[in-house]
Design goal:
This protein is α/β, with parallel strands linked by helices and 283 residues long. The chain has a single domain, classed as Glycoside hydrolase/deacetylase (TIM Barrel), CATH 3.20.20. It has ten helices and nine strands. The strands form two sheets. Strands 1, 2, 3, 8 and 9 form a five-stranded parallel beta sheet that branches. A four-stranded mixed beta sheet has the order 4-5-7-6, with helices on both faces. The radius of gyration is 18 Å and the shape is globular. Bound molecules: zinc ion. The site of zinc ion has 6 residues, from loops.
């Protein structure tokens, strides 16, 4: 049985840093600028280990202009290196509070900006902040989203329907069923396993089943996918490459080496979201 790895880089740039600040979230003022040099380094590492990824890019960064807000040339290089370029909204908006027209607008503007930049279709989406989280049909309830947005809240199905009508076919979703959250609490660590794609609102979705980063828990998830089949979904931020946390290069390099070994043994395949969509639609 061959497992699959879906590896994402959330490319926030200064738009993400500014959006964090506007929401009162702590963050390093320099992280927007670091995105670019770290992405150059990532492209080298991915090429060295032969591992394919998906870079979820804030659409405004693909417009002409200077760093730390724009670098269309780098986004083209990501595409030319064979990685998928997905949309990460237009300016890293917090989606649960958007009105439907504003949601359509950020989905459309980001897709158009990136497509004009790379000259290829953009069909995958990664929501900023991994939200919305609220998805009652998936037994996932977000008290904070419900508290913060009283009326007309965008939940996971509403986001997926908007993606579908704006030409997207894939979404990384981050809802977590209540039984997994209870298991986390009982065992005192995050409990999860390989996933399969699912359809929500007409879109092929893959649920994030790791906490972010490339430390021991991400390695064991990938090894489980190689053993049992299914998909391991991992992600990081380019700007965290030297941050000292689990997204740091000192965890990433051994992670990529392990993935390379499993790939050459034929037990794992790093795939792009659009390949999972093709399989899902052909099934
Ligand atoms: Zn982000």
């Amino acid at each position: 049985m061959t497992g699959r790895l879906l590896m994402f880089w959330d490319y926030d740039t200064q738009w993400g840093t500014d959006a964090d600040r506007a929401r009162g979230l702590p963050g390093s003022a320099a992280s927007g600028a670091r995105e670019f040099e770290c992405t150059d380094r990532l492209l080298e590492l991915h090429a060295r280990f032969g591992v394919t990824a998906c870079f979820a890019v804030v659409g405004a960064a693909a417009l002409p202009g200077e760093r730390p807000y724009h670098d269309p040339g780098q986004i083209r290089r990501i595409h030319q290196a064979g990685h998928e370029v997905a949309s990460h909204a237009f300016q890293h908006e917090w989606l649960p509070a958007l009105r439907p027209a504003a949601l359509d607008q950020t989905l459309r503007r980001s897709r158009t900006a990136i497509e004009e930049c790379i000259g290829a279709p953009v069909t995958s989406f990664v929501p900023p902040y991994n939200q919305p989280f609220d998805y009652p049909a998936g037994l996932s309830f977000s008290r904070s989203e419900r508290r913060q947005v009283r009326h007309g809240r965008i939940d996971v199905p509403a986001l997926c329907r908007a993606l579908d009508r704006n030409g997207y076919t894939f979404c990384r979703v981050a809802y977590r069923p209540v039984h997994l959250r209870l298991a986390d609490r009982v065992r005192g660590r995050r409990v999860d396993g390989p996933v399969r794609v699912e359809r929500i609102g007409g879109v092929t979705c893959c649920r994030l089943n790791s906490a972010g980063g490339f430390a021991a828990d991400a390695v064991s998830l990938v090894e489980r996918a190689a053993r049992e089949g299914g998909i391991a979904v991992v992600y990081g931020h380019p700007h965290s490459l030297g941050a000292g946390n689990s997204q740091d290069e000192r965890w990433l390099v051994p992670f990529l080496a392990r993935v390379q070994a499993l790939e050459s043994a034929g037990r794992l395949r790093s795939v792009r979201p659009r390949e999972l969509v093709q399989e899902d639609r052909a099934a």
